[in-house]
Specification:
With 217 residues, the protein is mostly helical. Helices cover 77% and strands 0% of the residues. The protein is built from seven helices and no strands. This is DUF305 domain-containing protein. Keywords: Signal. It holds the Pfam family DUF305. Residues 1-22 form the signal peptide.
Length: 217
Amino acid sequence: MITFKHALNGAAAALGTTLALTACGQATGDEASPGSGSAEAEQEQYNEADVHFAQMMIPHHEQAVEMADLADDRAGEEVGELSDEIRDAQGPEIEQMQQMLQDWGEDSGEDMDHSGMAGMLTDEQMEELAGSDGEQFDTLFLELMIEHHEGAVDMAETVLEDGTSPEARELAEEIVDTQEEEIEQMHGMLGHDTSGDGSEGAEDSEDNGDQDGHEDH
């Protein structure tokens, strides 16, 4: 009887273990489904504003990199260092936005008209920048890059208001923080007073533009 009892207890224990493992397996399976759904929901968590932001910001960044490339053999030391920082920051961001569009299954936007974007330089402005050198290049580069950065900040703030993609929003916040800091730095390099509301700096910029014949910048 003792042996039979022990065997019965052993069988019961084994059955309990089997049931527990089965229940655990079912729980794991039940939890996997919501997880998969969450992954799909995360992939779908973007909207038209996010797509437009990436499609527009890629060529905007590409032009900033092109401007920075011009500085390699034209700029003074201080502007040359700044241009390196701009290129190092925006190059990887271009790749990130290209990957975002690919992950979303969206078009790269290469065939879209980007000429009207805020801060985007015209062909004539790029030619003028390429044709300058030394101090003239430095001044023109800073003036044009300030406008270029301001356009990028406006675009980033728009997606922060209207976008839903966490990745796009995080990138937009980084763009705003970095480029606003660089805008202030460039105003300082131009000798503008940035301690107040910026009005004096704006007047100085206009005066410099008039003197150098760059009123449209």
